[in-house]
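Structure Section — protein described below
Tokens — whole-number codes for backbone shape
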Amino acid sequence: MKDLFGLAILDYQTNNQPEDIITETSISEADPMSVAYLFRSFEQMPKIEQTALQMACGKVLDIGCGAGSHSLFLQDNTACEVFAVDISQNAIKACALRGIKNARALNVMTLENEQYDTLLLLMNGAGMCGRLKNISAFLQKLKSLLAPGGQILLDSSDIIYMFDEDEDGGKWIPSDTSYYGEVVFNISYKGQQEDAFDWMYIDYNTLQNAAHANGLQCKLVLEGEHFDYLAKLWI
């Protein structure tokens, strides 16, 4: 990976002529996204993210922290002990420049012998497992990182609304897709194209079934205005 997403974050943080990130998926056309959105304040965040941050407690691991806006709020405004991780080296550099004290570049699947009271996976954090077939291994890893009484807070979306209806009112799902929430992402930035990568939007019922199958309780905390939701998982 060229880490273009992280490069855009670092460019914005260092005022190095940042440009919009262009995102395109296997089911949606190219769409520009302002990098400034990743640097939003608590007041600018959607209600789902605000609620998750208000529920966070104790030792917190912000997984896929990006520009670190969630970590920064918790670090500066709560009693939480915050740790931020992301696979992007550039994003972690930006987090450090923003003043996040504990920021590391790593894949959460490689973490061992660490436990946290709150695992935070916002901005569709569950999607990082890529494909539904990977969800059990992903949840088992998260489960291993939970301290006694700990919680997983994640948000995602049910993207069934993006598919056309057939004559009977059902949704037309391409036959080559094992689960309709699976997409392939393409990102470009400053004329460079990132390697395509898998991502997943998981509907709540599918998440709940996967959680129960992996020994986790699951609760729907909040539904957003556009098919999105916040869920809490715990042992």
In short: The first helix runs from residue 4 to 13. The longest strand covers residues 146-157. DSSP finds six helices and twelve strands in the chain. Residues 155 and 230 are 4 Å apart (CA to CA).
